């Protein structure tokens, strides 16, 4: 049985593009509005409806314990390489686009010179062929080459929870000073000179509450971000707000009045456990936008048709297996990634790997050589 709920998605352009201080950003009040349909589990969407026909299946090699992936939080694609942000393992790892392991930052974990205790996120720069790794113990940015060798070490006075970048700026999601449950986005020049400038902030927050997924991602020359407990997806570029998409979740959105009171986690979760209160893992192309929320639902926006649909289940018509784990891909425009459990990927590749043109001999060998203790595989898709 189909359950359809109506909500609103407004595409808003700010009246002016400017840097702001720590105050809340003012948005325009008019814009394009489209309807959003919520679909039940018995109405899955086929991946082919919003993903292109071509994709990359990449089993990540695991030749040594250093290559073992704990959990994939984000994938960075740059210079023919895949960088894996793995907070569970507290490391950044780099693989070829065939999945061959190159290096990790495990050797840098410690208290010594050019070492770190805790890594929070990273962003890659294809033009400069460097990776900026942000750490919170101590607060710093470690600049690495594409083989993860240290180039420089820069101290900061802020803790970057999530990062993304365009051609000139790195955008960081940071805690609001004096109110850690509230967040803001600051822009930092890629040469790491000058003080970070606040360009986006929110007056909403819940103490101690967060969800899985990344609130910020890079897509070509643009960066997409949605602050926690906000429903506005901002497209950033050149250190400015370029466009704003406001999602009205209707009855399935968190209570605005409760958020204004800065509720405690226990109280808010009890009243809003099944509501949408955080947008994460945003991917976008010229025609499609895809994102998830704390409820696990997937939202697909068709920009041309001016429609938005939310699905509780995705059906794979691209490969004979699927996974519910999707992670953001920072780098190329319009990319997203599905994480496949190692056993499922190994079974498929061993079965047809030698005859399927989509799987190279290197990928087949990597997976079969490490099938007992191997890493998961990535399926890299491009949005239509």
Describe this structure in words.
With 384 residues, this protein is mainly beta. 9% of the residues lie in helices and 45% in strands. The chain has helices spanning 256-260, 265-272, 342-352, 361-369, and strands at residues 6-12, 32-39, 45-46, 51-59, 74-78, 81-86, 91-96, 101-104, 118-125, 130-137, 139-145, 150-155, 160-165, 169-176, 179-189, 197-201, 216-219, 222-225, 232-237, 240-248, 279-284, 288-293, 298-302, 307-311, 314-315, 326-330, 335-340, 377-383. Strand 18 (222-225) and strand 19 form a beta hairpin. It starts with 5 loop residues before the first strand and ends with a strand.
SSE map:
Layout: E1 6-12, E2 32-39, E3 45-46, E4 51-59, E5 74-78, E6 81-86, E7 91-96, E8 101-104, E9 118-125, E10 130-137, E11 139-145, E12 150-155, E13 160-165, E14 169-176, E15 179-189, E16 197-201, E17 216-219, E18 222-225, E19 232-237, E20 240-248, H1 256-260, H2 265-272, E21 279-284, E22 288-293, E23 298-302, E24 307-311, E25 314-315, E26 326-330, E27 335-340, H3 342-352, H4 361-369, E28 377-383
Parallel strand pairs: 2-24, 3-25, 5-26
Antiparallel strand pairs: 1-2, 1-20, 4-28, 5-6, 6-7, 7-8, 9-10, 10-11, 11-12, 13-14, 14-15, 15-16, 17-18, 18-19, 19-20, 21-22, 22-23, 23-24, 26-27, 27-28
């Amino acid at each position: 049985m189909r359950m359809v709920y109506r909500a609103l998605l407004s595409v808003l352009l700010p009246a002016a593009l400017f840097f702001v201080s720590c105050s809340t950003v003012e948005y325009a009040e008019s814009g394009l509005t489209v309807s959003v349909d919520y679909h039940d589990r018995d109405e899955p969407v086929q991946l082919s409806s919003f993903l292109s026909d071509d994709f990359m299946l990449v089993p990540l090699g695991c030749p040594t314990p250093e290559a073992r992936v704990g959990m994939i939080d984000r994938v960075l694609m740059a210079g023919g390489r895949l960088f894996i942000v793995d907070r569970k393992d507290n490391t950044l790892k780099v693989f070829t686009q065939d999945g061959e392991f190159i290096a990790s930052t495990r050797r840098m974990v410690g208290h010594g010179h050019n070492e770190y205790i805790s890594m929070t996120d990273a962003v890659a720069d294809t033009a400069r062929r460097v990776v900026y790794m942000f750490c919170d113990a101590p607060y710093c940015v470690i600049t690495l080459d594409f083989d993860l060798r240290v180039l420089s070490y820069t101290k900061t006075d802020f803790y970057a929870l999530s990062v993304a970048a365009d051609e000139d700026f790195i955008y960081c999601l940071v805690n609001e000073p004096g109110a850690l449950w509230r967040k803001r986005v600051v822009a930092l020049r890629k040469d790491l000179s000058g003080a970070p400038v606040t360009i986006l902030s929110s007056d909403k927050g819940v103490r101690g509450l967060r969800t899985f997924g990344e609130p910020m991602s890079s897509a070509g020359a643009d960066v997409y971000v949605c602050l926690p407990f906000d429903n506005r997806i901002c497209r950033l570029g050149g250190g400015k707000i370029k466009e704003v998409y406001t999602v009205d979740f209707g009855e399935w959105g968190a209570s605005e009045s409760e958020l204004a009171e800065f509720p405690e986690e226990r109280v808010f979760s009890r009243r809003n456990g099944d509501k949408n209160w955080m947008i994460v893992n945003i991917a976008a192309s010229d025609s499609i936008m895809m994102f998830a929320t704390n409820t696990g639902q997937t939202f697909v926006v068709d920009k041309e048709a001016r429609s938005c649909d939310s699905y509780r289940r995705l059906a794979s018509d691209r490969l004979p297996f699927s996974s519910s784990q999707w992670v953001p891909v920072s780098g190329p425009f319009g990319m997203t990634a599905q994480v496949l459990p190692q056993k499922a990927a190994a079974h498929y590749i061993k079965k047809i790997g030698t005859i399927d043109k989509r799987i190279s001999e290197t990928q087949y060998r990597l997976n079969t050589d490490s099938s007992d203790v191997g890493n998961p595989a990535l399926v890299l898709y491009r949005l239509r």
